[in-house]
Amino acid sequence: MRLELVPVPVSDVDRALAFYVDLLGFNLDHDVRPPGSGARITQLTPPGSACSIVLYKDIPGLDLPVGTLRGLHLVVADIHKAREALLARGVEAGGVDDMGGVYYVAFADPDGNTWLLQEMPSGARRPEGS
């Protein structure tokens, strides 16, 4: 099994596209409107990722309220560089939090869905016995 697609609930697909593509630099893979359904399927992939997101509004079976998705992780090699890149693109990002040698930076999309940049340094290891 592979995790390849994460649904992200948004109130305005065009506004979300501007954020994810123009500010975050995600690649737009698909933007389709199935005939007769009124739905829109918009799939994007972060650069270098094997997992994509789908921005959605009013798709049957996906009923997560807008702005309630929390803590999706984007793993980066250098948390400081990644944070600076977000700030340079106009994304409001928090400071770097050191959680015992694993580093995080929080930010949110225009609907309030939250994301975390995560840097797991090469020396970080699982606790013994796990």
Can I get a quick summary?
With 130 residues, the chain is α/β, with parallel strands linked by helices.
Structural write-up:
This protein is an alpha/beta fold. The chain is 16% helix and 30% strand. β7 and β8 form a beta hairpin. The radius of gyration is 16 Å and the shape is elongated.
Fraction of helical residues: 10-25%
Report the structural category: alpha/beta
Regions with little confidence, pLDDT below 50 for 5+ residues: none
Give the mean pLDDT.
91
Strand order within the widest sheet? 1-4-3-2
Pattern of helices and strands: EHEEEEHEEE
End-to-end separation: 22 Å
How many runs of DSSP E, i.e. beta strands?
8
The value of Rg in angstroms is 16 Å
Shape: elongated
Largest sheet: 4 strands, mixed
Features:
single chain, 130 residues, alpha/beta, 4-stranded mixed beta sheet, 2 helices, 8 strands, elongated
Task: Give the topology.
Elements: E1 5-9, H1 13-23, E2 27-32, E3 41-45, E4 52-56, E5 72-75, H2 79-88, E6 97-98, E7 103-108, E8 114-119
Parallel strand pairs: 1-4, 5-8
Antiparallel strand pairs: 2-3, 3-4, 6-7, 7-8
